[in-house]
Design brief:
Largest sheet: none
Strand content: under 5%
Oligomer: single chain
Radius of gyration: 17 Å
CATH superfamily of the largest domain: Homeodomain-like
CATH architecture of the largest domain: Orthogonal Bundle
Mean pLDDT: 88
Order of helices and strands: HHHHHHHH
Length: 136
């Protein structure tokens, strides 16, 4: 899922966008620091840009601010963990870099339109319904 989100980014086509090497570097750093976070200043420095230039070019490239993009990546990682692990939601939130479960739930709901628990229940219902259809 993270790769799908990242794959939606078009190649840089103008000087207003991040250069391909800058996007690759920013992407790698964001994924590397998904659980701990990274400052926009550090991302900008790694891309040899000022903070303001980096933020502007990042938004042109992705359609999101670096902070919003990090939240999207964290929610995608949380969804992956909910699908593939038995961790409690509080633990998933912490593993994805959210400071506590309330923050995780608030951001998840803002992005997905449902709470993590509701999303997880829908996932289990779909899985059990799919299993039931294939068993018959």
């Amino acid at each position: 899922m993270l790769q799908q989100l990242i794959g939606q980014i078009p190649a840089a086509s103008a000087k207003r966008d991040l250069a391909p090497w800058q996007w690759e570097r920013a992407q790698a750093l964001l994924l590397e620091h998904l659980d701990s976070g990274i400052t926009v200043t550090a991302l900008a420095a790694a891309c040899a840009l000022s903070r303001s230039d980096f933020t502007r070019k990042f938004k042109v490239t992705t359609g999101h601010s670096p902070q919003a993009w990090m939240r999207l990546l964290r929610v995608e990682k949380a969804k992956q963990l909910m699908r593939e692990s038995a961790f409690a939601l509080a633990e998933i939130g912490l593993q994805c870099g959210f400071c506590d479960q309330a923050h995780f739930c608030r951001i998840f709901h803002r992005i997905e339109g449902v709470t993590p628990l509701s999303w997880q229940r829908q996932l289990f219902q779909e899985a059990s319904h799919s299993t039931w259809r294939h068993a018959g």
